[in-house]
Amino acid sequence: MVGSLSIDLLNMPLDLNYHHLYYFWTCARSGRVTSAARELRLSQSTLSLQLKSLEAELGRRLFDRTRAGVELTLDGRLVFEHCEQIFARGAALSAALKKEGASQPTVIRLGVSSALGRETALAFVDRLSCVKKSMTTIFVGPYDAVRERFSQRRLDVAVTGSDIAPHLGPGFQSRRVGALPVNFWASPELAKRFRGFPRRGQEVPMLLRTRDSSIRREVENYLCQSGVLPVIVAESDDADLLSTLARRGRGVAALHRDAARHDIKRGALVRIGPAATGLDHEIWVTTSSREAPDPVLRAALASVVSL
Fold this sequence. Notes:
The chain is an alpha/beta fold. The protein folds into three domains: 2-95, Orthogonal Bundle (Arc Repressor Mutant, subunit A), CATH 1.10.10.10; 102-179 and 283-305, D-Maltodextrin-Binding Protein, domain 2, CATH 3.40.190; 181-279, D-Maltodextrin-Binding Protein, domain 2 (3-Layer(aba) Sandwich), CATH 3.40.190. It has helices spanning 18-30, 33-40, 44-58, 74-97, 118-129, 143-151, 188-193, 214-226, 239-247, 261-265, 295-305, and strands spanning 63-66, 69-72, 106-113, 134-141, 157-160, 172-186, 203-208, 229-235, 252-256, 270-272, 280-288. The strands form two sheets. Strands 3, 4, 5, 6, 7, 8, 9, 10 and 11 form a nine-stranded mixed β-sheet that branches. Strands 1-2 form a two-stranded antiparallel ribbon. α1 (18-30) packs across α2, α1 crosses α3 and α1 crosses α4 (74-97). The two termini are 35 Å apart.
């Protein structure tokens, strides 16, 4: 259990090797020993040896080795959280000693699930751009990839279509910041074939989210209750891809309007069925439950959580 690690890293004796801690922190942020070794300008074997020395010194296993790289154990997450404070405070001290005009902007690492679409990602980037002395780096990818990066502390904030905090363990908090109404969209030619949608007994080629998506289950229930017979043409958690497939006439896509805004605006996609379906795609923002030591980062996180 995380709570069983009875070591206070903020009050550790000076005989602790802080170089080892820095190597561990860099590797945890990278997610791969090879990438961290390049960043630290060490050989992979040397870095691996230093990490093993730290694990021996603490008496805890900090990493699980996988094909994809390294994943933090429960104890590793606790050590990482303390390292975040140690090295963030060191960076803050260094910045405070420099002239204000020469200080570097705080980098805010944003991750957005591709299921929400490009427009949603841009809305969060626009929100963060209002925070002074900051710069945003953005990762847009599948839900699982965003969750994995966030669990490895490679992101400061994650924006997803469902609550990921329960899957991450202690040290994380999430908030539902909104919901996007979902409608059914098709190319103008395909829409003509399905006037009266949703109609009982109607066979409709559908472009849907993957089966583990909560909105997928809601859409399927809606179609079932309406008596529609869906023929699944494609499944994807990439909203932009579903919009493209719908525009090309491959099927009817269940999307929130922002995910297909440009195609709708230029008439490449039209809505079929009622304007109010009762279907919503939720937006969740997840951050660390620990207060960020950097005031710029604190302001940035507050701005997205208050959306």
